[in-house]
Fold these 3 entries.
Entry 1:
Amino acid sequence: MKMIVKTLLATSALFSLCLHAAEFTLPSYQKTVLENGLTLYLMPQTEVPLLDVRVIVKAGAADDTVGGQAALTAEALLLGTQKISKTKFEQQLEFVGANIDSGAGSEASYLSVSLASKDQDKVLPLLQQALLHPAFDQQEFDDSKGRLIAELTQKRESPKAVINDYFNQLLFGEHPYAKPLKGDLQSVNTLTLANLRSYYQQWYQPNNAAVIVTGDFEPKKMQKRLQSLFGSWKGQAATKAALPALHKPEQAKVLLVNKDDASEATFIIGGPGISRANSDFVALSVINTILGGRFTSWLNDELRVNSGLTYGARSGFRSYTQGGSFYIYTFTKTDTANAAIDLALQTYQRLWQQGIDEATLASAKAYVKGQFPPRYETPSELGDLLGDMFVYGFDENYINSFSQQVDKLDLAKTKSLINQYFPQQDLQFVIIGKAIELKDKVSQYGNVSQTEINPPQAD
């Protein structure tokens, strides 16, 4: 009897979880735009007395005129204000246990703080000071620049740390998406404090930004508080030139990055991808789950479990506002590089040659639906989602119809999407390893060019 009860309880819990996943919708939120153009997102979540506040600016590394501008400008917001030194700024936040962070991606920069709800009157003015009145102190800038140079220098020792930069450069060419997120050694060495001030004046303006608040707060009071803190922020962001068109590769290319002391070959194979707002984004995530998006994926099974060529292999889409990339990534011993690349390509070709059967598709759909709700459980995760909506131009339909989009994916649609979105011709290869042992081996995959390991040099 006890065993039967336990089984029933387990079955009931599983059913409840599946039902929860199927009915998951984005919590309600308010979106308003102040007179100065600043967008506000307010999403109350009162279960835990915590607050997450983030500022999103629609500018990142793709907008750099000197590589590293976006990254160092974002960091400069944490290095003191015109009224408070860096030390006092940090002490005041530390005293109430608040965590603050900043950074920059390809198309957006952020400043975020997590805090106890009871401390918002102490912390929000500090956030406002950091955003509207950064000190841009010369000594702090020199120290920040030195840290970034040291980071980029160390990065060259790790193929895994730099391979995405090389792949973006190969795939995107002269497009802004090719710019490395933190610049490179050459560009960062030339950066000045004036470059950061210029970037800040161009892009850190209210009509180019959003303030997102999630967690334990009363919406009307928060709206009034944000109006008081940020309503007087004045200015207009520079007009952005339209991004140039993304061109598909016209031939298969291999970029061989020499690392003389490497005992492994680290590689990415890929091609053009999709924009983040693409209506097929959800369906493609299901298909990629089968190919290389989970531990039991085809790629991981073949390259790790069955052949022992690597400790792991994966695939995925990286998406931006205009487009993106598709990639297959793994690493292996130098002397098994060809075997691993060939097996990765053979496994990838199964999408067309063998296709996906009903049982495999059903398994992937259940997996994706089960993994979805836990991705948006905390105020911070919900804030990230609202920030992505602001930057990339998709709406809550991504969340609210997620399960329906997964459910309606059938074998015929799967085949159509594979043919439409997964690049099959003119693949691009980046391989990092000991070039003298790899060059002849990899020439069969495309036109080979070679460079020494180093973060790609930005124009």
Entry 2:
Amino acid sequence: MQAFPNISQIKYEGPKSKNPLAFKHYNADQKIDGKTMKDHLRFGVAYWHTFRGTGSDPFGPGTAIRPWDDGSNSVENAQRRVRVAFEFMEKLGAPFYCFHDRDVAPEGRSLKETNANLDAVVKVLKREQRRTGIKLLWGTANLFSNPRYVHGASTTCNADVFAFAGAQVKKALEVTKELGGQGYVFWGGREGYSTLLNTNMKRELDHLGKFLHMAVDYKKKIGFKGQFYIEPKPKEPTKHQYDSDAAACLNFLRQYDLLNDFKLNIETNHATLAGHTVQHDLLTAAAAGALGSVDANVGDAMLGWDTDQFPTDIYLTAQIMLVVLDMGGFKTGGLNFDAKVRRESFEPVDLFHAHIGGMDAFARGLKIAAAIRKDGRLAKFVQKRYASWDTGIGAKIEKGQVDFRALETYMLAKGEAARCVSGRQEMLENLINEFI
């Protein structure tokens, strides 16, 4: 029995279509720069928001109408939810999905019972993957919802909790491998502090480093070939989280000798909470060769919290795709819609409207970014702006051929530095507008 009987396969109908259940710009098989849109964008559906979100907020219970969900924590309900999820993703045409272990299967009264529940649901996930061809982009473990993680998981003050978290990640890695997951994400939802008065920061960071090394070791032991990611976020639910932004994550990975084993999964709304644009965090990660995947959403500029809205801003999607194309495209990562419909959008069909809008926005962003790159004026301007580094003293500095004495000799002979060229910000903004 279908959960969406009145909705057929979502098709591409072109920009002139007025059908709200059709793509206007996302044409999966259309080739851009020699690769299909489907392969460029690698869209993923977030299981936790799309199939577990209820529309609840701090001021009221959920509003979402989900006829297929009986509201129980039974394994049978979880298995039914899987079949609904794959019907949705198949009709949407999304090639990937992502999940936390606790999204797909209920927690039991013991770790043994919890693992058995997960195994029972994984059987259905596996069967649905084979039936539809939809793949797991990445898996992860929820190490933040259960009260045991009140003080964090790997950074907890309680060694037993650390041990439980390790056992949970072990199982999540095994399941991700079994389902052919292309990656695995670590998000430290409570790996941080609310006050420094009761916090031994160095000890907590050392424990986090040990935890991630254990994960790397176990990944190798079981032969999991997927990419490991860390997802930055500065706050919520803690006052400060150790994975606060891309730079903090990279610093941590270098300090604990983990940079070769991890890339970053950058989320738009998390970057803005850190006081950055997503373009900033993407470029910070890309500059270190560590940009792996993207959680595609957006926040609300009028609200200072993680609203996880679907992205519809064409400037934003074009900026993101410029960075992705410049780094050579996704390898194991993709664009995961870590986004939820609004509390007021409570009917099942709203799930389709939200994803169609996000997919169309990124399709437009892809086309715009490809056109800007083909045009070449933006790249040429940036290259010309740094022309003084291509020859003469600039080239010598970059090659490490001069020291401070040589620089002094150079400037004593020259007398004054050459004048800088204009940054032409307004002209470049106008240039971008030509393509939007």
Entry 3:
Amino acid sequence: MAFFPDIQPIKYAGPDSKDPLAFRVYNPDEKVEGKPMKDHLRFAVAYWHTFRGTGGDPFGPGCAVRPWEDGTDSVEMAVKRVDVAFEFMEKLGVPFYCFHDRDVAPEGKNLTETNKNLDTVVRRLADGQKRTGIKLLWGTANLFSNPRFVHGASTSPNADVFAYAAAQLKKALEVTKELGGENYVFWGGREGYTTIWNTNLKRELDHLAKFFHMAVAHKRKIGFTGTFLIEPKPHEPTSHQYDFDCANSLAFLRANGLEKEFKFNVETNHATLAKHTMGHELEYASAHGMLGSIDANRGDPLLGWDTDQFPTDLYTTAHTMLVVLNQGGLAPGGLNFDAKVRRESFEPVDLFHAHVGAMDAFAQGLKIAAAVRKDGVLAEIVKARYASWDTGVGAEIEAGKHDLSSLEAYMLKKGEAERNVSGRQELIENVVNRYLR
């Protein structure tokens, strides 16, 4: 049975194409810097938004038209939904997908039944992967939706909730390994607080660290070789999330001896909520060798919440891919479209329009980034700005040849610092605009 009978496989048609269901830029086998686009970009579809999203918002229920849905959250419907997902992904031509355990299978009346439901659906997912060649980029556990997690999961004041979350994590890790997942993601969900007055912050942070150490131990026990990724987010649903941003999360990992066990899955909309640009979060993570994967979306600058829109801004996609190219790629991570169509875009075809546009935007960003690197203009501007550190006292400081006393003597002899040079921000912005044509 075809669930998208009117949609043909999406193909590359070139920059002059007016076909909304064709790629204008994304040509998976076209080589950029000696490597096919598909290997640079490693696109993934987010199961939760694309196949479970209904278009609901705080002011009204979902209005998405999904003809394959029967209105139930049964195991039978979950199995059928897997077939929908693989038809969509195969026609779109993406190599990966991502999911939470509760996206793909419903909870039962107890944990035993819940695990059995998940096993049933996982068998169908495995069949879909084998048939299509589509792989699991990463799996994760939903430790935030069920009312049991109202006060958090690993940071809950209820020890039984911690235990339940640990059991759910164990199963999700095992399922991810079973499906050949290349990574496993931890998103803090409700790991944070709404008011500090009823919160033992140190105890909760200690419990979160203990939870991560348990995950690392079980990863080794079962022989899972994928990368552990933390996805920082500052707010929503709690007022203050413990994994606020990359810097905060890295400090937490280092404080608890976990920095060698994790990398980051950086999301654009979460960076915005933290009052950062995506470029800042990516550069920070990459500078510390911690950029593992990317959730590719965007927020609405007029709204202060997590709108999870599909990425279309070439400035963002170009800078993102510049960071990725500069660090030598994302693998085993990728670009996961953690994005949802707008509530008003309720027809099945809109799912294709959204992904096609986002894939083209990142393909264009990749080409722009490659052109920037080839020309070397921006790299030369940055190099020139820091030239004083390449020779003389700058090089000596970086080599550890000075202390405060020796630098005092240096400045007493010299009398005054060399004159600063202009930052040339406007010039740089003009240079960047040359590539966005």
